[in-house]
Amino acid sequence: MTNPFAVVQRTAVEEENKNLDINTRIKNLIDSSPIFLFMKGVPDMPQCGFSANVIRILDHHGVSYKTFNILSDMDIRDGVKQFSNWPTYPQLYVKGQLVGGNDIVTELMQNGELEELLKA
């Protein structure tokens, strides 16, 4: 685990420019933070158990991250599935690369690989 006294920022973001094409909008969201999570709800109020679990895991590791509530924008919700070729939420991205959803994030945490990935 990282420094328990580190200041962690969990920021739910909104888009700045909805006039761009959907892939550019999604890429801009992902690029807004080294660790980015598309989820149902916001960090303080996840709206599904899988999103809540990934939030707990990220918080446990003491990392700062940004999120986007896919329930707030159907274009993003549908577009991310096409963009990532991943059918479910949440979706965790680290340094612009899709890590996966709840099952993969949980497995990576259990085998110790997630900490290394988040530190890199």
TrEMBL record:
Domain Glutaredoxin per the UniProt entry, residue ranges: 35-99
Alphabetical keyword list: 2Fe-2S, Iron, Iron-sulfur, Metal-binding, Redox-active center
Tell me which PROSITE patterns the record gives: GLUTAREDOXIN_2
Does the record bear Metal-binding in its keywords?
A: yes
Q: Name one Pfam family in it.
A: Glutaredoxin
Looking up InterPro entries in the UniProt record yields: Glutaredoxin, GRX_PICOT-like, Monothiol_GRX, Monothiol_GRX-rel, Thioredoxin-like_sf
Domain of life, per UniProt, equals Bacteria
Provide the family line: Belongs to the glutaredoxin family. Monothiol subfamily.
Write the protein's name.
Glutaredoxin
Where does this protein come from, organism-wise? Bacteriovorax antarcticus
